[in-house]
Amino acid sequence: MLADTPVAVAPLRRAVSTLVQFVCAALVAALVAAVGLFAFDRVQWPAFNSSNVTQAVTTVMQFAALAVLGLSIYLLRRRRWVTGARVLSWAALSGLVTATLGMPLAATRLYLHGISVDQEFRTQFLTRLTDSAALRDMNYADLPSFYPAGWFWIGGRVANLLGMDGWEAFKPYAIGSLAVAAVVALVLWSELVRSDLAVLAATATTLVVLAYGSPEPYGAVIAVLVAPALVLAWGGFLPATRGGRGRQGWGAVVGTGLFLGLAATFYTLYLGIAAFAVTVMAVVAAYLAHRATGSWRAVLPALVRLVVMASIAVLVALIVWAPFVFDVLGGNPPSESGTATHYLPDAGARLPLPMFHMSLIGLLSLLGTVWLVGRASSSHRAQALGLGVIAVYLWYLASMASTAVGNTLLAFRLEVILLVLLAAAGAFAFVDFSRWISLATSENPRVRRVLVAVGALGALAFAQNIPQVLAGEITVAYTDTDGAGERADQRPAGAASYYAEVDDVLLSQLGGERDDHVVLTADTSFLAYYPYFGFQALTSHYANPLAEFSARAAAIEEWSELSSPGELLAAWEELPWRAPDAVVFRQGAEGYTLRLAEDVYPNDPNVRRYTVTFPKELFDDPRFTVTEVGPFVVVTATGERA
Asked: What's the whole-number mean pLDDT along residues 436-453?
């Protein structure tokens, strides 16, 4: 496929062999993650934020996993027990993921960042798709999903099969899916480079994703695949760089299309950067073909391959996007553009230059940068990764430029992609530089041993520091109140400990199933634990553009100013959306309160919280049932509304 790949075999036979490896590797990773997480759960561990015990055990496990990875690299390089060495590498890499994330979180049932902020809507989506396999919106009734449902749908089906609640399945599923993605990336690397180099590159990129991308697990599983996918994509364009029309590289074209489709079903932003990078590759390939032949007709092969990739990606993407697309095409266009891209933190206002940071990731990025520039004309891998890096920086510049027209491209979330690409390049750079140093010293075995030791210790130093990089996210997982009403750090639980009672009130007074009802509440984490539909989302940034977030917020404020229960019920009857069947308020000094949010971009923070207060008299009517539950007031519309 590429000039520096293993010897090719018959295309069909190779495709089948690769597919078998993908399946076997995924099964091994899933088994290792399941066994590891089950074992962690059998022991009563202290909380990570109040003890160093879990950090110590994590380090021991990481050392063991890295040692086994080192053994597999040695065996693969020596071509001894190749099959066994591959299985060892799959098990060790998935074990590294499981230990690095699972052990620090062993004493909590929540994942990184608990149930706070963005993790709240992610948990809500997983809860929705655990309750039903239908591609429904995570929050709003009668709307198709706008957020890519791929990762959440699979997780929901797994949770449903195991009889787990969505919130409870989030942590093990997130860790398990990351373990599977890491070994799938390893198998893909193995199809592109020597097996020992594949293990090295996969380990480096996996560690980077664990450190900087794991809080978003559905994005992390794509991030860990980006580097080999771009190398694969460039392999698909290489025949076209000379205006070639042969079949060479078509397997890579199909594989790239499948990857882009997978990204579209998991994480839209990562699809965007991957598709942009592939488009940059097509433009470069077309330019090289024109330069080589002097004919503009020579650019056609590159464009054809790009169109084929895009066509495959669209077909795969429709698996989860079809309901939303058909709804829009059927005459229900978005009434507002949404505010998902209205966020500009400091990290999005400047170009990331990790190669100049005084840290291990900075050193690895610097090595990778030097290698990308130095090998740009001689290595297809360097060309592919280098074009990916260029695409990321172009995206950053475009994002910063778009702020002038009131928008962004959320470039700050691509820093992990940049680090992954530079880490892959850094791994290859370390091997090349080590080879050059060894040759310069007449292949002195002591020099080789020193280089191996430095590389191994560097990997261990980076790995054991990952829990500290994630310390804030881990702490929130212990301090948030989980769906069972408990805090893992054994401190007094928060208001969420009353959610079970609120749920009992709603079920007893409304009847039916939870997803039969719409609940208006500002405590939207309740909807992350129980699959009621919400009348309003947490913020506009993740609200479905078909839901008319701003109009709903205005309606809620208008209701608070009404003077009688009859007026309120009449207003609900006239709504263009399904009216609330219940409202979960907080107790306030002057009435019942809801704390809502509005977009205030370009300010940072980009969300302003404000409180709407409803007079108690508004619900003094037989058609309403008012129940106090701890700090909450549950109002259900249980009588005739008309």
From this structure: 86
